Amino acid sequence: MSILQELIETQEFATLPPVATKILKLLENDNIDFRDIARIVEADASLTLKLLKVANSPIYATRTEVSSVQQAIVTLGLNRLTNIVLGISIFSRFFFSSQKQAADIIQKFWWHSSCTGMVAKSLAIKLNRFFKENEFIGGLLHDIGKLAMIQYNAQMFRSVIELVETKNMMDVEAELSVFGVDHIEIGKSIAEHWKLPHELYSIISGHNKPSELTENRELTAIVRFADVLCEIWGADVFEGFKTVDLREEESWKLLCTSYPELANFDLEAFTFELEEDFKNSSTFLSLISQNQY
């Protein structure tokens, strides 16, 4: 059995959390009834509590207090809510099942993931683009392949970090050297195994090179640009960046091609505004880490 197969078939990654599995199954039906979604979520008290906390947090700034799952669906919309539930259920499961001996790496990983999700969400709003929360959940899950590596063998992943920090390798190169496979390929296999929506699959499998995608390119570019910003702002996860020229960053150039109005953006002022949002990323992480799922 290859390392890739072993990574995918470990206990943690063999199956999605039950709630996520049930919701994805319901989403296959074009005539989905929001009450069915509500019943699935409400059957899990911990998930319901987290959902309501997130819905009432500054992340969504709802005008009235959301006190039930059905009200959350009406307030946020079914697509946004199902994506949020999907993200919370996956995030919570792996947040609490992470290896204790790799606590320092895991903490850095989840901090980077939550920051990328928040900055991607803020970036989409500032660009007046709406992706039904896929940019946020995609930001949370884009590096799921790295989490699989850490869970599989934390010591091997420490060797990856050492190569990145002492040999000036990028993460993908270092991962191939140590594991024989990189986090992009692992993440792609996990997304296929879990049957995640196409949007999340594109982000997980193509965030390093969004211009090579044939679908969801702009969505993935937004997540990638957020990913790069978080790396250079200190919420990094050992990717290997030393210096970054944001205007030459592939994801930004792709966005400028898709949305020509960005060519005249004051990128320095724009990213300064995003950095303020970045500082609020701890809100989501603190909400999710309360009350083990």
Give structural attributes:
Hypothetical protein af1432; mainly alpha; 293 residues
Describe what this molecule looks like in 3D.
By secondary structure, the chain is mostly helical. The chain has one domain (13-288): Hypothetical protein af1432. It contains 18 helices and no strands. It has helices at 3-8, 11-14, 18-27, 34-42, 45-55, 69-76, 78-97, 103-126, 134-141, 144-152, 154-166, 171-179, 183-194, 198-206, 217-232, 250-258, 267-278, 282-288. Helix 6 (69-76) crosses helix 7, helix 9 packs across helix 14 and helix 9 (134-141) packs across helix 15 (217-232). It is globular and about 55 Å long. The two termini are 32 Å apart. The model has no long low-confidence stretch (mean pLDDT 86).
Strand share of the residues?
A: under 5%
State the helicity in percent bands. Answer: 55-70%
Please count the helical segments. Answer: 18
Looking at the overall shape, the CATH architecture is Orthogonal Bundle
Mean pLDDT: 86
Q: Report the CATH C-level class.
A: Mainly Alpha
Radius of gyration: 18 Å
Order of helices and strands: HHHHHHHHHHHHHHHHHH
Label the structural class: mainly alpha
Full CATH superfamily name: Hypothetical protein af1432
- CATH T-level fold name: Hypothetical protein af1432
Distance between the termini: 32 Å
The dominant shape is globular
Number of DSSP E strands:
0
Largest sheet: none
Low-confidence stretches: none
User: What number of structural domains do the residues give?
Assistant: 1
